[in-house]
Design brief:
This protein is of the alpha+beta class. It is built from 4 helices and 11 strands, in the order H-E-E-H-H-E-E-E-E-E-E-E-E-H-E. Strand 5 and strand 6 form a beta hairpin.
């Protein structure tokens, strides 16, 4: 995932990077959303469903970058919506996700995003897509954690949706652990506060320090 773009290498990248919705310090683009969990036989986690919800200004900026406008009803024409889905489905080669799964401290490998959809929700662009685990994980033995972040912290992801557990979910529960700013090192916060709009922290995966997390476990 590049600093200029969360999900594709298109003209919309410029819209993200130059968005006036951000202040003069990291982060610059704010995205609500969350993660749902798909559980199969044996309480194995098989896939996740990811939601991104942009604010109204970012929504208009993104649509404008694709030459699209809202219709008289304040919605997207279906033709434009389908074209937007087609364009946004062209994920950049270095996309590394916004929902980072770990189990026992080890990263969980995910297949490429699929089934992307786009719609307007109360004037805000919402994207949803799925990611399949390359190897399902049995959650009765160890919890799985999903950290919701973009590695450079150019984009600030916040878990605002209650996580749902789909499929064979009996005995499974998900807990949101919000980012706690008081738990972060003051020096790290100071570094980010001094970054200009055109700078990126050289701290590896700095976004993870500021991530909301979801922990899922099955009995």
């Amino acid at each position: 995932m590049t600093r200029q773009l969360v999900h594709r290498a298109t003209p919309c990248a410029l819209a993200f990077a130059m968005s006036a919705s951000a202040a003069f310090a990291h982060p610059h683009v704010f995205i609500d959303g969350g993660v749902n969990f798909v559980v199969g036989p044996g309480h194995e986690l098989e896939a996740i469903e990811v939601t991104w919800l942009y604010d109204e200004f970012e929504t208009l900026y993104m649509l404008a970058s694709h030459g699209m406008d809202l219709n008289a009803q304040g919605a997207l024409d279906e033709t434009d919506r389908q074209e937007l889905v087609r364009r946004l489905s062209d994920w950049p080669a270095d996309f590394d996700g916004s929902a980072h799964l770990t189990s026992r401290g080890e990263a969980v490998a995910l297949d490429w995003p699929q089934n992307l959809d786009a719609e307007l929700v109360d004037g805000r662009l919402q994207l949803t897509f799925d990611r399949i685990l390359q190897d399902p994980i049995k959650m009765t033995e160890h919890a799985v954690e999903a950290a919701f972040f973009e590695r450079t912290y150019f984009f600030d992801f916040t878990v605002t949706n209650t996580p749902e557990i789909r499929g064979l979910a009996t005995g499974c529960a998900a807990e949101i652990i919000p980012f706690d700013p008081t738990a972060q090192d003051k020096a790290l916060l100071d570094v980010l506060a001094k970054l200009s709009r055109e700078e990126t922290s050289d701290i590896e995966n700095v976004g993870g320090f500021f991530a909301d997390r979801i922990v899922v476990k099955c009995d």
